[in-house]
């Protein structure tokens, strides 16, 4: 019925807008939901749908698309359609006219994606223009430097299938090269990967690591590439990562992001909905126990909020309230049911369907939830709802006889398209990289429940899964703060925590151990500060939980005291030269020494980088900074020393740029650059501090325009504009919503001939989904 609704109201647009009963168009891309017809045993409808795709689809549109999404949704859809078309043709009744047309279209699309791989690393650019490719001015893309790990690591199934179906080896080669590069770049001591990576240098841009947004399907594709292609190196890589995931990220029943360099430290206190696919992957791996535990925890979150919120905290409160009808939980439910045969999972499926009907169903389809708390809707129904959610829910309840082919002969792509396993023995001409030497034997205690098949794993013990779920029965409800009265009493009694806030050092392993016991997690922020969060549920005992609360109380008092001492009005660095003309104003921190900009006239001048860049010794390029505002990097010596060195070289001011990659005034409070404890009256020039994100705007501007003039002042000078107000609109939903400041990157692009700033807003999946021209 709902497939028909899509055709009736939306076709040939990409997706249905279920509230307004219209089609959502981004380009005439092929239907992304072909395979469903066959799975649902609607063979005739499948045949019609294929004909429509062949008749109406044009792949040569001037549209910038995500390489990742186009691969998993469009290329995967075409290949899945082709796989089932040839299966049906062979059966002799349907699709007799079919002559590999979908495959030809897939090949055409594959070639269109290849220019994205033109990087030294072999990692693809995140986006490509289907008509103009990349980097040409008309392409409007190709300036990106970063991509997400999943974006670069979720290609091998579709690309290898394309190569093996067609004999054109290039696709599989490119996908393998990207995977090889990611594997090389894994953090060697933790064996984890970060969320985003620079496609040119291979440096990790976001060094947090989990199994959800931005990484998820990289892991999925390593294991599935082994299944589809039979190449041991993929399994070895997967097992190495899996061991690291189970060691650091899996904190049953939670899966919590950590830092790749400091994997014992949590990077967040919330989880995202995308990680709900992980129990399903664990089933494929054969590690059933943690799969049951995490799935059970997620199910309780769903029962509490009706849907899995886009993100939820470790005490199961809503963190991001949207729910775009994501299918991951249904996917895991299906695989767990297959593995255990426990009818409990049918009940789970029933609840999912009831909630969808009750809260998301609208006359034209199912609408995404804008806010699971209020039940409000968004006018969108993503293609994954049909491609994945419907398929997994149908398959959960389907008997073997309901499906006209043997689903065990296929592997599900991340978008639930089906690729035949016989591809493993077809056109195997791709040379495999020998990684065996790098593979070290693992402690396989994590794999106790490993089993090589997805048949019913515990036929003789139907209560097995239940016995694992039982202790977790109330995990979500239990997480509400407990023992408040007792804690207050013990506060009154004046008891002290085992570690005093004023003594705490984030680098002391013993302190970290105590923190862990008290249920306090340490989160390293991008700007180098640390954030502490306590969850009583994670403490070793209720006494430890109380100690944790006392410690946090002390910490709050201590930091509010420190903040009072540090409060300062921000200063500004304004770029005034062509083509910015004062429109870019960067928030800056003042110094406790040098010219006080709040009392004196602002300082205006061209900028020049000092040599050495840290400004910690006499400058070797005084002629370059003379009469200019010197740029100096933070670190290695006192701020005052830097100021003296640039002043001696003749600079009229200085800007210190943070050496902490990714720091920004959006996310970190400004601070005052302190003196060196001595008399700093000799420093006469003004000094300002910029976090790295703001600093790189100036550095990028120098790279592109060479001559960059700035104004250092106590506030932005009015040049017709008092500042820049930005609204971020979701490409997908058209809705305005707040994005996290750290999700925003700034780029200058000279190719358009007029001054502007591109701002990319990363979606949850790490996709660069929006740009704005000023
Ligand atoms: C799907 O498009 C894919 O499963 C992808 O790997 C991540 N999640 C979305 C749906 O939520």
From TrEMBL:
<feature type="active site" description="Proton donor">
    <location>
        <position position="69"/>
    </location>
</feature>
<keyword id="KW-0732">Signal</keyword>
<dbReference type="InterPro" id="IPR012341">
    <property type="entry name" value="6hp_glycosidase-like_sf"/>
</dbReference>
<comment type="similarity">
    <text>Belongs to the glycosyl hydrolase 47 family.</text>
</comment>
<dbReference type="InterPro" id="IPR044674">
    <property type="entry name" value="EDEM1/2/3"/>
</dbReference>
<dbReference type="GO" id="GO:0016020">
    <property type="term" value="C:membrane"/>
</dbReference>
<dbReference type="GO" id="GO:0006986">
    <property type="term" value="P:response to unfolded protein"/>
</dbReference>
<feature type="active site">
    <location>
        <position position="216"/>
    </location>
</feature>
<dbReference type="GO" id="GO:1904380">
    <property type="term" value="P:endoplasmic reticulum mannose trimming"/>
</dbReference>
<comment type="function">
    <text>Involved in endoplasmic reticulum-associated degradation (ERAD). Accelerates the glycoprotein ERAD by proteasomes, by catalyzing mannose trimming from Man8GlcNAc2 to Man7GlcNAc2 in the N-glycans. May also participate in mannose trimming from all glycoproteins and not just misfolded ones targeted to ERAD. May have alpha 1,2-mannosidase activity.</text>
</comment>
<keyword id="KW-0378">Hydrolase</keyword>
<keyword id="KW-0106">Calcium</keyword>
<dbReference type="GO" id="GO:0036503">
    <property type="term" value="P:ERAD pathway"/>
</dbReference>
<dbReference type="InterPro" id="IPR001382">
    <property type="entry name" value="Glyco_hydro_47"/>
</dbReference>
<dbReference type="GO" id="GO:0005975">
    <property type="term" value="P:carbohydrate metabolic process"/>
</dbReference>
<feature type="active site">
    <location>
        <position position="328"/>
    </location>
</feature>
<dbReference type="Pfam" id="PF01532">
    <property type="entry name" value="Glyco_hydro_47"/>
</dbReference>
<dbReference type="InterPro" id="IPR037322">
    <property type="entry name" value="EDEM3_PA"/>
</dbReference>
<dbReference type="GO" id="GO:0004571">
    <property type="term" value="F:mannosyl-oligosaccharide 1,2-alpha-mannosidase activity"/>
</dbReference>
<feature type="active site" description="Proton donor">
    <location>
        <position position="310"/>
    </location>
</feature>
<dbReference type="GO" id="GO:0005509">
    <property type="term" value="F:calcium ion binding"/>
</dbReference>
<dbReference type="InterPro" id="IPR046450">
    <property type="entry name" value="PA_dom_sf"/>
</dbReference>
<comment type="pathway">
    <text>Protein modification; protein glycosylation.</text>
</comment>
<dbReference type="InterPro" id="IPR003137">
    <property type="entry name" value="PA_domain"/>
</dbReference>
<feature type="domain" description="PA">
    <location>
        <begin position="610"/>
        <end position="696"/>
    </location>
</feature>
<dbReference type="GO" id="GO:0044322">
    <property type="term" value="C:endoplasmic reticulum quality control compartment"/>
</dbReference>
<dbReference type="Pfam" id="PF02225">
    <property type="entry name" value="PA"/>
</dbReference>
<keyword id="KW-0325">Glycoprotein</keyword>
<keyword id="KW-0326">Glycosidase</keyword>
<keyword id="KW-0256">Endoplasmic reticulum</keyword>
<keyword id="KW-0834">Unfolded protein response</keyword>
<keyword id="KW-0479">Metal-binding</keyword>
<feature type="binding site">
    <location>
        <position position="414"/>
    </location>
    <ligand>
        <name>Ca(2+)</name>
    </ligand>
</feature>
<protein>
    <recommendedName>
        <fullName>alpha-1,2-Mannosidase</fullName>
        <ecNumber>3.2.1.-</ecNumber>
    </recommendedName>
</protein>
<dbReference type="InterPro" id="IPR036026">
    <property type="entry name" value="Seven-hairpin_glycosidases"/>
</dbReference>
């Amino acid at each position: 019925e709902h497939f028909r609704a899509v055709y009736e109201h939306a076709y040939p647009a990409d997706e249905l807008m279920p509230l307004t009963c219209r089609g959502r168009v981004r380009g005439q891309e092929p239907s992304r939901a072909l395979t469903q017809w066959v799975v649902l045993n609607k063979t005739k409808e499948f045949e019609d749908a294929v004909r429509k795709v062949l008749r109406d689809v044009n792949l040569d549109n001037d549209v910038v698309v995500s390489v990742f999404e186009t691969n998993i949704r469009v290329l995967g859809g075409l290949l899945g359609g082709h796989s089932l078309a040839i299966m049906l043709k062979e059966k002799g009744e349907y699709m007799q006219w079919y002559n590999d047309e979908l495959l030809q279209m897939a090949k055409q699309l594959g070639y269109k994606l290849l220019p994205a791989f033109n990087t030294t690393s072999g990692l693809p650019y995140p986006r490509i223009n289907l008509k103009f490719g990349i980097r040409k001015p008309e392409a409007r893309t190709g300036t990106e430097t970063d991509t997400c790990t999943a974006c670069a690591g979720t290609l091998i199934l579709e690309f290898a299938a394309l190569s093996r179906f067609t004999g054109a080896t290039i696709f599989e080669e490119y996908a393998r090269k990207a995977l090889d590069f990611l594997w090389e770049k894994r953090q060697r001591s933790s064996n984890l990967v970060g969320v985003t990576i620079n496609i040119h240098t291979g440096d990790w841009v976001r060094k947090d690591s989990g199994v959800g947004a931005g990484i998820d399907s990289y892991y999925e594709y390593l294991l599935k590439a082994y299944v589809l292609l039979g190449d041991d190196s993929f399994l070895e890589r997967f097992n190495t990562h899996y061991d690291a995931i189970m060691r650091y990220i899996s904190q049953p029943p939670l899966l919590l992001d950590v830092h790749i360099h400091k994997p014992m430290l949590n990077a967040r206190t919330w989880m995202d909905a995308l990680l709900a696919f992980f129990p399903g992957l664990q089933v494929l791996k054969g590690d059933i126990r943690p799969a049951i535990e995490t799935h059970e925890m997620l199910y309780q979150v769903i029962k509490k909020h009706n849907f899995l919120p886009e993100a939820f905290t470790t005490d199961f409160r809503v963190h991001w309230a949207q729910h775009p009808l994501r299918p991951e939980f249904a996917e895991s439910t299906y695989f767990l049911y297959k593995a255990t045969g426990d009818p409990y999972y049918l009940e789970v499926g029933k609840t999912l369907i009831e909630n969808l009907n009750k809260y998301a169903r609208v006359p034209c389809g199912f609408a995404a939830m804008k806010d699971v708390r209020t039940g409000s809707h968004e006018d969108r129904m993503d293609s994954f709802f049909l491609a994945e959610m419907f398929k997994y829910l149908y398959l959960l309840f389907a008997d073997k006889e309901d499906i006209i082919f043997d689903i065990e002969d296929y592997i599900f792509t991340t978008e639930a398209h089906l690729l035949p396993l016989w591809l493993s023995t077809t056109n195997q001409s791709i040379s495999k990289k020998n990684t065996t030497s790098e593979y070290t034997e693992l402690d396989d205690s994590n794999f106790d429940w490993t089993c090589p098949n997805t048949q019913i794993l515990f036929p003789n013990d139907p209560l097995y899964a239940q016995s694992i779920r039982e202790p977790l029965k109330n995990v979500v409800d239990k997480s509400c703060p407990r023992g408040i009265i007792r804690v207050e009493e013990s506060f009154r009694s004046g008891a002290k925590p085992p570690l005093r806030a004023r003594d705490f050092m984030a680098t002391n392993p013993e302190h970290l151990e105590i923190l862990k016991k008290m249920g306090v997690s340490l989160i390293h922020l991008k700007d180098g500060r640390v954030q502490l969060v306590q969850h009583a549920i994670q403490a070793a005992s209720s006494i430890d939980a109380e100690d944790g609360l006392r410690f946090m109380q002390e910490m709050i008092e201590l930091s509010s005291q420190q903040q009072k001492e540090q409060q300062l009005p921000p200063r500004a660095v304004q770029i005034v030269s062509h083509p910015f003309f004062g429109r870019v104003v960067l928030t800056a921190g003042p110094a406790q020494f040098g010219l006080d900009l709040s009392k004196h006239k602002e300082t205006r001048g061209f900028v020049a980088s000092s040599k050495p860049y840290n400004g910690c010794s006499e400058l070797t390029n005084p002629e370059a900074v003379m009469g200019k505002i010197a740029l100096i990097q933070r670190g290695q010596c006192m701020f005052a020393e830097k100021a003296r060195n640039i002043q001696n070289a003749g600079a009229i001011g200085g800007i210190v740029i943070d050496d902490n990659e990714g720091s920004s005034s959006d996310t970190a409070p400004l601070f005052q650059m302190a003196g060196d404890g001595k008399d700093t009256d000799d420093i006469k020039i003004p000094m300002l501090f910029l976090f790295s994100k703001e600093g790189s705007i100036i550095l990028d501007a120098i790279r592109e325009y060479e001559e960059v003039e700035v104004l250092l002042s106590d506030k932005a000078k009015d040049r017709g504009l008092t500042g820049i107000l930005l609204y971020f609109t979701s490409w997908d939903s058209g809705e305005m919503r707040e994005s996290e400041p750290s999700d925003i990157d700034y780029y200058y692009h000279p190719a358009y001939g007029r001054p502007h700033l591109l701002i990319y807003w990363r979606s949850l999946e790490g996709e660069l989904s929006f740009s704005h021209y000023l």
